[in-house]
Structure prediction request, 444 residues.
Amino acid sequence: MTTTISTEELAIHGGPKAFEAMTGKELPKIDTEEFLSIATRFGFNDQALGRIADAISNEDMEGNGPNFARFACPRPKATMGEKFDQRACEIMGVKFARGTSSGTGALHAAMIAVGVQAGTEVILPALGFVATAMAVRLAGGKPVFCDVDASLQIDPAKIEACITPQTVAVAPTHYMGRVCDMDPILAVAKKHGIKVIEDCAQSPGAQYKGQCVGTMGDVGCFSISCYKIIGGGEGGMFITNDERTFERACQLAEAGGLWRGAKRFHQPDYEGQVFWGSNYRMSELEAAVDFVQLGKLKDVVGRSRKVAHRVLGQLKTYKEITPQASNDAQGDIGYGLRYLPQNKALAEKLTQALGAEGVGGSVRSENPTPDWHLYREMLPITLNDSHPSYEKGACPVTDHWFGNMLTMGLCQWWSEEDCDRVAAGMTKVFDAYCTEDPQGAAWI
Ligand SMILES: Cc1ncc(COP(=O)(O)O)c(C=O)c1O
Prediction:
């Protein structure tokens, strides 16, 4: 039997609707349980968790509950991601900043933004971290390593010899809380028409001649992770003053196109604005933590500098010891100290004696495991690709320093008394094994 419905009976023509509303009740997707899970991850004990649970048990998570979208539809409040970007612009003094899920993601986006692609080369320091070289490879380019000088930063005088017709960029890493000598780096880049990507992962908040690292080249990249001086879990960001560079980096880092807002599905505004990319969005929860962390950067840097200056300012100079040179002693952060004894035997003697005094410090062993901060031991690159600059001996200053230098950490939380005791302990050991030389290289 067939029933016939006339078109007049359809709701569209004024007939009764098939049904008025769904009867299933919508529950929040994310609720108090997730909130407690975060509290658990923060490390609160069971009693504290119980009190938090009591406090929030009556909260009504209306409708679908909280929304952790990084790029939200129009809504009254800015997302934490937006707030993070805004704060980063203010702190760094730049026009554009974007949080990412990692420093590696930020570097990949920056490489693509400045035109790294198959058949191109990017010059990197022989000391840094493998992530920078991997970002070059991800973009399709080839990393080429350049030796460092006694500051352990890329040697500006050796960059020109690394430039070929394929070179599109140089990516100096501000290594371990110190700054690169940016003026000659920028000059050689300008002369050859290549871009500058500053890798600031290890030195956020450091300055060169009063300018924040990351603001002098075409793009600055940062890791804001738990392994760095600020950062909660995993995060990063890129900063720039150039709108097109920013947009291209955004497109790589957020290829879903949400960064373009309402224009998301529209034709590009100019050639090269829209292309395939990835998703390196910083999550809202990470942004909530890192927004606060950004605000702490100035104090972290200030405390670290004070400690470094107090310790180093008390040390005498010695014939047998060359301290790491500085390109800007006022701008360095100074959470670590590196110095070069005249030979390995002395380095080992000093390490043992300093350890016994309670000062600490380490020197590389004779049979070390590969270290991914050293050009020729960045296995993800060197095992899968070749270039003369990946060979042992290609960067002799780096080889000499890395194999023989003493490394020790300085802690931002040391009291003045702690600093004085560390300086006295170092002086005790140096006086015993070395010859004081007022003409020797200064510590600061
Ligand atoms: C110099 C340098 N660049 C990039 C990175 C990568 O950052 P992330 O671990 O956030 O990807 C690091 C991390 O250690 C680093 O030290």
Remarks:
- The chain is about 35% helix and 10% strand.
- The two ends are 97 Å apart (CA to CA).
- The longest strand covers residues 336-341.
